[in-house]
What we know:
The chain has about 375 residues and is α/β, with parallel strands linked by helices. The protein has helices at about 65-70, 95-100, 115-120, 120-125, 130-145, 150, 160-175, 190-210, 220-225, 245-250, 255-260, 265, 275, 340-350, 370-375, and strands at about 25-35, 40-50, 55, 80-85, 100-105, 180-185, 210-215, 230-235, 235-240, 280-285, 300-305, 310-315, 320-325, 335, 355, 365-370.
Amino acid sequence: MAEKTQGKTMQVNQAHPILTDTHTFLKVEHLVVQYGTIVALDDVSLEIPANRVTVLIGPSGCGKSTTLRCLNGLVGIERGTITYLDASVQGLSQTDLRRSMGYAIQSVGLMPHLTVEENVDLVPRLLGWDRSKRKERVDKLLALVRLDPEIYRKKYPNELSGGEAQRIGFARALGSDPPVLLMDEPFGAVDPLNRILLQDEFIRIQRQLKKSVVFVTHDLEEAVRLADYLVIMKDGKIVQADTPEQILSSPKGEFVERFLGPERSLQRLTLVTADRCMEKALSGLDSDASAHLPDCSNLTYWQVDEDGAPVCGYTRSEGSIIQKPITSAIHTVQIYSSLKDCMAKILNSGLSAAAVVDERGRLCGEVRFEAIQQISIL
Length: 378
């Protein structure tokens, strides 16, 4: 069982040893977990930063999910301590501690006999929230994960797609506005396209809410993309814990270098989202690209419809104008798409930039090849 130091001896705002502008939310010291003769965690020590995303990753059986489940008492520990430095969870019982933590898992875990509203409302109801406050909270959370409350509130889990169910699972984890979210491979059961969209949504929501998050995944690209603090594990031990940038540039030891793989330089493009280097786009309603692209121009002209959505992209190449029709979202990127995704769209289209659109599909800027090139060589 996790030991919690009483508030009088607690250093609530103890600085995190690696990340700047934050403090340690909880501290794990010399954690040991055994299943019979099998040692699942072997002297694990870790400091989780507040208001940041800590991602645990490693091979199957390395102890990442076990570490996560120790944090809310789902797994008992043989030795060691877990000290919560955040005042909102100090001194809580095991039951109250679990209710104070949002928990999202790969299989979603929605109650099949409850509606979407009742699933999202579950923890606030257990905590005794007022009914009107709970209804307001459900509507707010469904809007946050971009599901219309009027459409989804009364649906049952079997009426949802995999991506929708995962969004509901995320909304439920946020139900009581917990100080910390524990997420155990939450996007692992969805298809690759929906997984990228869910990652985009997670980045958007996290930038808005700034929760303390512990996130388990087996997907390296997902880990690098989402993590502020990346923890690599092997055989129940932590082998390296640092910022993704530092780990990619300076892997510690042969195992980490092999785990990151030969494409680790390309993984750096997942660290930056489109909004970080987005520039104003040259656009208009007409299709006469030559009027907007002078000779020798390396710019892209985006033809948009009356709603502002891009319908065609044009650029000059060797004196000729290349035209790329834009018929769906697969030809554009979102504000929180990675530069790796932007680069893929540029290479597939042959244009000199990727069109960035908002949630309504309206053009809001572009990411140019030159900007990605600058980032990749830093």
